[in-house]
Amino acid sequence: MKKSFGLLVGAALIAISGQVAANEQEEIGAKIYERAFGRGCGACHDIASNPQLSALIGAGKLPKDQFAKVLKEGKNGMPKAVAAIMEVGPVKKAGYTEDQAIDAVYEYLKK
User: Fold this and answer.
1) Residues with Cβ < 8 Å from 59, sequence gap 6 or more?
2) pTM over the 0.70 mark
3) 16: closest CA among 4, 26, 24?
4) What are the E-state strand segments in 42-102?
5) Which residues of 57-77 are buried (b: 16+ CB within 10 A; e: fewer)?
C-alpha cells in the first residue's frame, strides 16, 4: 500500500511540474511577443496590413518550422528576430535556448 501511495504522489508531482513548465513557457512566450524589439511583435503583427500570426498559427497555415526559419533568417520586411528575442529579460532569466524561446512564442500564439 505504501508503494502504491508513493507512486501516486510521484505521478502527481510529475503532472504538477509539467503544468508549471507549460505555464512558464506560455508566460515567456507572451513576454517575447510583448517586448521583442522594445515595442513587441504586435506593433507590426497586430495591424491589418501585416500577417496576423495568431490567426495563421491557429489555422495551421504557419507551421513551427517555417515560423522558426523566418525568425532566424528574416523574410521580406521581417528582420531576423532571434537576437531581439534572446534579449527579452524573462528569456535570459529562464536560460532558454533560441529554440526554446521560439517554441515559447509559437505556443503562446497558438492559444
Assistant:
1) none
2) yes
3) 24
4) none
5) beeeebeeeebbebbeeeeee
User: Three cell numbers at 83?
Assistant: 537576437
43-66 tens-digit pLDDT? 999 888 888 999 999 999 999 999
C-beta of residue 70 within 8 angstroms of C-beta of residue 77: no
> Quick one: CA torsion of 22, 89, 76, 51, rounded to 10 degrees?
50
The set of residues, in sequence order, having a beta carbon less than 8 Å from that of 24 and lying 6+ positions away, is 94
d(CA 50, CA 28): 23
Amino acid, res. 70 = V
* Radius of gyration in angstroms for the set of CA atoms belonging to the chain, rounded to a whole number: 17
- Hey, what's the cell of 42? 504586435
